[in-house]
Design brief:
Blueprint (H helix, E strand, L loop, with lengths): L2 H27 L7 H21 L2 H23 L2
Helix pairs in contact: 1-3, 2-3
Length: about 80
């Protein structure tokens, strides 16, 4: 891996890991009162687009990070929709 790949991988790890506490908290407490449905919907769509973009350019840091983030965001979004 070159320097650019390392930076991309570190960024992907940090931004994906940052999402984990929100997903775990939402799952455990089912308290989604502070979660904005429009924001999470748009965010999930954006992450989905990043995932597809990563697939199209075959960038593994983008594919892996956005795939994991999309799954976590979809957990939060589905809980929000279930508990509206």
């Amino acid at each position: 891996m070159n320097f650019t790949d390392w930076i991309g991988s570190i960024a992907a790890f940090l931004t994906t890991t940052a999402f984990l506490p929100q997903a775990v908290h939402s799952w455990r407490t089912r308290d989604l009162s502070g979660i904005s449905l429009p924001m999470y919907t748009l965010f999930s769509l954006g992450v989905g687009c990043w995932f597809i973009y990563g697939l199209l350019i075959l960038s593994w840091p983008i594919i892996i990070a956005n795939g994991i983030t999309l799954m976590l965001a979809m957990v939060v979004l589905s809980l929000k929709l279930k508990h509206v």
